[in-house]
Specification:
The protein has 313 residues and is mostly beta strands. The chain has one helix spanning 305-308, and strands at 9-14, 20-25, 29-35, 41-48, 60-65, 70-76, 81-87, 93-98, 102-106, 115-118, 123-129, 132-137, 141-146, 155-158, 165-170, 176-181, 185-190, 200-203, 206-207, 217-218, 221-226, 233-237, 242-246, 251-255, 263-268, 274-279, 297-302. The longest helix is centred in the C-terminal third of the chain and has 4 residues, at 305-308.
Length: 313
């Protein structure tokens, strides 16, 4: 993608309506690109926050109108906003999750939140497929909400993974969610207790460890993205690789070579023909790993249907 962010890329997301790609960055800016049918990109517009856009280290959420170039403040927290999600339903609302240990629901036409949910810890990751919303916090807390009753958790559990939660992505049909940790492991979790027998976890984004003497080098799973047509999914991590997987047959579909930098965020476009991934320092080595030589790129991968189609067991 031409004219990428100048600092760490915190998240990228495609529009569900057209091939517009938004990217938030530690350089305080949110950029929007139009992706052409031939894979080229046009930088359409950019707007700024007062601090790194995590989704908002300046503690505010903004709604940007591409047609007018105007941004409106629509959300506010007492600490940086880590996640922003549009929640579909009869009346679409905005959900924001913060390090202030709350999730807030907003009608963007009003200044005050519709509702505020108190969490046990700082929010690290959040995703929603109506009527499901799943939030992962520090200390491995997982809170599951039925948006028909959004103020009270439907279920609260401890993550099935032993280490810090890094990413959560709801199944396309809303029956469960995938969760990734800093320990190179992913779990597939169903919401309903009757489906618990289908829960499983697997190792990924690791190097070595084939023998008892050869200790594995373990990398963070930074992102899980679901294919909008086939319901398969991708994982990407600090090791600078991404792979496609089939949840139902529990097998890897395709592994891709290292890209030369950690993959900090990924997404498919609305029909699953483009897979976008951000190459950017992901803070897996703390501040000591950050330097001016770190590259920041957004790459567009043309998806081969065979690589993402489900397979028989």
């Amino acid at each position: 993608v031409q004219h990428p962010p100048t600092d760490g890329i915190s998240e990228i997301q495609f529009s569900p309506q057209a091939d517009f790609l938004a990217a938030s960055s530690w350089d305080n800016n949110v950029r929007i690109y139009e992706i052409q049918s031939n894979g080229s990109s046009v930088a359409k517009t950019m707007y700024s926050h007062g601090a790194p856009a995590l989704c908002g280290a300046d503690k505010v959420g903004k709604l940007f109108d591409i047609s007018t170039g105007q941004s409106t403040l629509v959300a506010q927290h007492d600490a940086p906003i880590k996640e922003v999600r549009w929640v579909d339903g009869p009346n679409p609302i905005l959900a924001t999750g913060s390090w202030d240990k709350t999730i807030k629901y907003w009608d963007t036409r009003q200044q005050a939140p519709i509702s505020t949910i108190t969490l046990p810890e700082r929010l690290y990751t959040m995703d929603s497929v109506f009527p499901l919303l799943v939030a992962g916090t520090a200390e491995r807390h997982i809170h599951i909400y039925n948006l028909s009753n959004p103020s009270t958790p439907f279920k609260s559990i401890t993550s099935p993974l032993k280490w810090q939660t890094r990413t959560i992505a709801c199944f396309p049909n809303g029956s469960g969610y995938g969760i990734g940790s800093i320990e190179g492991r992913v779990a597939m979790q169903y919401v309903e207790d009757k489906d618990a027998s289908m829960n499983f976890s697997f190792k990924c984004h690791r190097e070595g460890g084939q023998t008892t003497r050869d200790k594995a080098t373990v990398y963070s799973v930074n992102c899980i993205s679901w294919h909008p047509v086939f319901g398969t999914f991708s994982t990407a991590g600090s090791d600078g690789t991404f792979a496609f997987w089939d949840k139902d047959s529990r097998q890897k579909l395709k592994t891709f070579p290292k890209v030369g930098a950690p993959v900090s965020s990924t997404c498919f476009n609305r029909n699953g023909t483009i897979f976008a991934y951000a190459m950017s320092y992901d803070w897996n080595q703390g501040h000591t790993g950050a330097n001016t030589q770190n590259q920041n790129k957004i790459m567009l991968h043309s998806v081969v249907e065979y690589d993402v189609k489900p397979r028989k067991r």
